[in-house]
Amino acid sequence: PRIVAVVMVLQRVEGLSDREAVDRLSFDLRWKYACGGLGVDAPGFVHTVLVDMRARLRRSARPNRIFEAALAVARQAGLVGRKRVLDSTPLYDAVATQDTVTLVRSAIRSLLKVVPAPQAAQLRGLCRRDDDYVAPGKPACDWQDAAAREALIDALSRDAEAIVASLSGQTLPPEVAQAAQLLSTVLGQDIEAGADGVFRIVHRVASDRIVSTVDPQARHGHKTAARSFDGYKGHIAVDPDSEIITATAVTPGNASDGSVAEALCPDVFAQAKAEAEWVPSCEFPTENPEPLSVYGDGAYGTTEFVQKLEQAAIQVQVKVPPPSAPAGKFSKAAFEVDLEKRTVRCPAGVLVVIQPSAAGGGMASFGTSCQSCELRSQCTDGKRGRHIRIHKDEGTLMRRRREQQRADWKAAYRANRPKVERKFGHLMKHRHGGRRARMRGQQRVGQDFALLCAAQNLKRLANLGVRYENGAWRR
Fold it and tell me: For the segment 282-320, what is each residue's pLDDT rounded down to a tens digit?
């Protein structure tokens, strides 16, 4: 297992396939030396051993134990400090994104593959299209003919609906139930019956839309408003001083960064709790002049995460997004919000009372006051005047926005936050297994991403001169 683990790490360092990795072990003396000084004629192993080892790790209680072992060495060498920088990067899916027709037909094929042969024959008998649903790919159609396309989508949808209706209410084996659920989902997300009873593709994008039946957990995501991708997001927490990765996570591409922010820095929260409770047995030092701090861009600046940091007495170096407004118009920052008096004053001096909402916060509506206002053109184009929405945690937002205007806050942010971008440059060096995932499914991609981070941590430890002396790891 030790030799296989070393090969897995070296494979991720160099971005190799399984076959290429075992070839390196057989013919590269450097790899033999890294695996414990193997002899020149030491035999290798079949590349499927790597597949089996990943599966065994995935089934174990500690699937990311290689990452944990490398991080433990860094901690013992004193390379993990009290600051964390959080960020994410797209991980492109290992399969092709499918259009609606291919999605529905592939889902039908997948279901017919997993049901018993007699039941599969029965379900095929319910289908009215001249298609045995065996061969992969798109069905034959004159794609330039709108009527032919519409007829194909309607017929395909009716076959899928008949199959789903036939299985409804039955007790199905887990594999069949999963395939039936997938078919039902892809049918419902993109297809609907019109008033004339004909099934057509809907002109909208369903929330949490499945983009591929081959990897149903992949999602369509946006890194920026103009840059989209299909697949997953890889999240990391980095110690900016040593550039050691302290935590990893993988989410579907449409997940918000803030949804995993707390999970990326559990050690910081544990340290803060230990210091607050003065736990002498805590593995972290309880006396340190440097404050605990977490850095992140606006994607992590949710009020929930910021408040948890504040409650734990952790220094908040996470950006809270500024208030937005149409180009050239006054943003909410130009209005004076008084949460104690529950009022808002506009740039023209008009004062209105905040009307509370059931979910918390409220709304300040200037309404008719905007009709004759000289600043109207700079404020709003709405017929009903300007409205200012007050967040349920508006006090937190206002406090953090004032804080991040301070010169010392900006200096600390600029000094530490960019470190994570360089680390992503190291991680994404190789396209295969870096930017593009080698696996399918969130669990497998997450395990492979953690292994990639472990490999980069080991490289960093070597660059920092960490060595084993007198029974301990030292720098």
Answer: 555 555 568 999 999 999 999 999 999 999 999 999 999
- Alpha-carbon torsion angle 356, 357, 362, 364, nearest 10: -70
Give the rounded percent of residues in the chain with a pLDDT score beyond 70: 97
pLDDT tens profile 338-363: 999 999 999 999 999 999 988 888 99
- Amino acid in position 270: A
d(CA 375, CA 10): 64
Cα dihedral 48, 52, 57, 61, rounded to 10, equals 180
For the stretch 203-224, pLDDT in tens is 777 788 888 888 999 999 887 7
Q: Do the beta carbons of residue 76 and residue 471 sit within 8 Å?
A: no
Q: Is 418 helix (H, G, I), strand (E, B) or coil?
A: coil
Dist CA 346 CA 364 (whole Å): 10
**E strands in 14-161:** 83-92
Phi, psi of 238 (to 5 degrees): -125, 140
**H helices then E strands: how many in the chain?**
16, 16
Q: Against a cut of 0.70, is the pTM above it? A: yes
Q: Do residues 154 and 162 lie in contact, with contact meaning Cβ atoms separated by under 8 Å? A: no
The residue with tokens 């199905």 is 172
Q: Which of 218, 111, 214 is nearest to 443 (CA)?
A: 218
